[in-house]
Design goal:
- The structure is a single chain.
- The chain is an alpha+beta fold.
- The chain folds into 2 domains: 125 residues, Pnp Oxidase, Chain A; 63 residues.
- The chain is 36% helix and 34% strand.
- It is globular.
- Bound molecules: flavin mononucleotide.
- Flavin mononucleotide (FMN) binds next to strand 2, strand 3, helix 2, helix 3 and helix 4.
- InterPro entries: DUF447_C, DUF447_N, Split_barrel_FMN-bd, UCP018747.
- This is DUF447 family protein.
């Protein structure tokens, strides 16, 4: 089933990671039957250092994924997992497992950042049948907006000028609106990017 969720080895897929106290979107890459991901220092990072249990959920709702990256929590229903002691969101397929993580330092234009490189060994999988959502360019723009805006906020916090990220955020927000996107999370992200820009 892992191969059906993530058909291409080495390709990055965006999913939801659930750890003992947090939910956040991450990119995972399948290598054989293992799911690999990198998580920068934050709540999930500290959770995984204490407790290796993790759940990966395959979520086709971009608004939900992006909202969780900005700590906007919509009403969600949680249910029990099969093997691990965590709870998962009802309505989406999931993969339970134990993440073996190694500390690392990642250096890029944002400077040096603490991170964990993790390998998740699946121990249980659950599949929920839902009507598939049609692909939307507005959703694609929102996903990218979320990724670039979260990096922009890190740059701001570190006092690093990031004009190219700002340009990307502005462009993606405009694209999202042009393509008919209506989610409030886009406004939240855009305003957050602009407000911090004015304060900085
Ligand atoms: C679509 C998307 C994918 C993301 N992928 C990752 C990722 O692979 N690793 C990561 O550390 N942060 C990723 N982020 C950023 C996190 O959601 C978030 O900013 C932070 O890293 C998690 O902090 P937390 O563990 O304190 O919630 C992603 C954000 C978005 C919108």
């Amino acid at each position: 089933m892992i191969r059906e969720f993530f058909p291409v080895e080495g390709k990055t897929y965006e999913v939801l990671l659930i750890t003992s106290s947090n939910l956040t979107p991450i990119g995972v890459v399948r290598e054989s039957n293992i799911l690999e991901f990198t998580i920068f220092e934050g709540k999930s990072y500290h959770d995984l250092l204490r407790n290796s249990e993790a759940v990966i959920q395959v979520v086709d709702d971009v608004e939900l994924l992006v909202s969780l990256a900005f700590n906007v929590f919509p009403r969600l229903k949680f249910g029990k997992c099969k093997e691990v002691s965590l709870r998962k969101i009802e309505g989406y397929s999931w993969i339970e497992g134990y993440a073996q993580c190694k500390r690392t330092i990642i250096s890029d234009f944002l400077g040096s950042s603490r991170a964990l490189k993790c390998r998740l060994q699946p121990v249980a999988v659950g599949v929920t049948k839902t009507v598939p959502r049609a692909i939307s360019r507005a959703d694609n723009a929102l996903l990218e907006l979320g990724v670039f805006a979260s990096r922009l906020l890190v740059a701001r916090r570190r006092g690093i000028k990031a004009d190219d990220l700002e340009e990307k955020v502005n462009y993606l927000y405009k694209m999202y609106k042009k393509l008919g996107g209506k989610s409030k999370i886009a406004e939240v992200i855009y305003n957050l990017s602009r407000r911090e820009s004015c304060e900085g």
